[in-house]
Write a structure and sequence with these properties.
The chain has about 350 residues and is mainly alpha-helical. It contains eleven helices and six strands. Helices cover about 40% and strands about 5% of the residues. The strands form three sheets. It has a two-stranded antiparallel ribbon. It has a two-stranded antiparallel ribbon with strand order 3-4. Strands 5-6 form a two-stranded antiparallel ribbon. Strand 1 and strand 2 form a beta hairpin. The protein is extended, with a radius of gyration of 56 Å. The termini are far apart.
Length: about 350
């Protein structure tokens, strides 16, 4: 009996760890099974929030989750790979989005064609068997190029080709052309998706080109020379596309192109600009300069006619043998005061 009591007590202790699945609420909670959302409208106990906040919120959350799971298991179920799944209904609440719903990605030209013809894309294998190398090689990726280089270490020259032509270089050029063609097609798909007008490149699709587009392409092609089509031969009844000027034909040009003007007009403009720079004759200024020269010449002649003193301060009288007159024989200046003793 003691062993049976111990077993029963142990089971009761284990069952005490787990709470019952039945939860009683004053007001029923509102469950949105589509979003697995439980909304509890009951008031919170303020005294328990102040005394034991963590345990109170933990027990409250456990009870609400238990009520939500009780409603989930009441829904119809199905078994999938030894698992029981519940079929949830559509959600009731509308959750706000941070951003708008993305627009569906527009189809490319090939995807639209494949959809119309019913062509389905087959999954590509990561590796394919190569009979030449007798091994499995990658179907795509950077290792594919290394496998092709190892396989095509020698290339056969066709019978109608030039024997001196480099087949490896020709293969590289063909690959560059394919890459450029794919990039052009990708840019056209992007422009078509954004409803943008494809820029003119001088080449249009003959299957979908109109007469206006062909005329525009022909005009652009003629202007794609160094002289902007000045020396291009004109065909009889040749028309020029409307709305195409220098700014449209020559990208980046904002002013009038001087090389498009006639040569005679340009030469006349150069001659006129040179003649405008010729200096004008000022008569009054010329007369004043002439008078000043005459005055300077007369002053120079008068200065030469006057007696000159020597470098030592002696006059010309001594050089010519004449005596210098003695001082004091002439009249004195009464206003000039003389110093010293007056002689009698």
């Amino acid at each position: 009996m003691d062993i049976v009591n111990e077993i029963l007590e142990r089971e009761q202790q284990e069952l005490a760890k787990y709470k019952p699945i039945t939860v009683e609420k004053l007001l029923e909670v509102q469950n949105d099974l589509g979003l697995l959302l439980c909304t509890d409208v009951n008031d919170l106990a303020e005294d328990r929030l102040k005394s034991d906040c963590d345990d109170y919120l933990l027990n409250l959350t456990r009870d609400n989750v238990q009520l939500l799971l009780n409603d989930v298991w009441q829904q119809p179920t199905e078994s999938v790979e030894e698992s029981v799944l519940a079929k949830l209904p559509a959600p009731v609440h509308l959750l706000p989005r941070e951003r708008k719903v993305p627009d569906p990605k527009p189809l490319t030209k090939w995807q639209k064609f494949a959809q119309e013809k019913g062509i389905k894309k087959k999954p590509r294998m990561q590796k394919t068997y190569d009979d030449v190398q007798d091994k499995w090689v990658p179907t795509y990726g950077y290792k594919r190029a290394a496998a092709e280089k190892e396989r095509d270490w020698v290339l056969e020259v066709p019978g109608n080709a030039d024997p001196m032509e480099d087949q490896f270089q020709k293969k590289k050029e063909l690959k560059k052309e394919r890459v450029a063609k794919n990039e052009l097609q990708r840019m056209r798909n992007v422009a078509r998706a954004q409803k943008l007008k494809i820029p003119r490149v001088g080449i249009t699709n003959p299957a979908a080109a109109s007469s206006k587009e062909l005329l525009t392409a022909a005009t652009v092609a003629k202007a794609s020379t160094a002289s902007v089509g000045k020396f291009q031969d004109k065909l009889p009844k040749d028309k020029k596309a409307r709305g195409l000027g220098v700014k449209e034909l020559i990208p980046g040009v904002k002013r009038k192109a001087s090389h498009l003007e006639p040569e005679t007009k340009r030469n006349l403009d150069v001659v006129e600009s040179v003649l405008k720079k010729r200096p004008k004759v000022d008569v009054e200024k010329a007369i004043s300069l002439q008078k000043r020269d005459d005055r300077e010449r007369r002053d120079a002649e008068q200065a030469e006619s006057k007696p000159k003193r020597s470098k030592k301060g002696k006059s010309q009288f001594k050089s010519k043998g004449m005596k210098k007159p003695r001082g004091g024989k002439g009249q004195r200046n009464p206003n000039k005061r003389t110093l010293g003793r007056k002689r009698r």
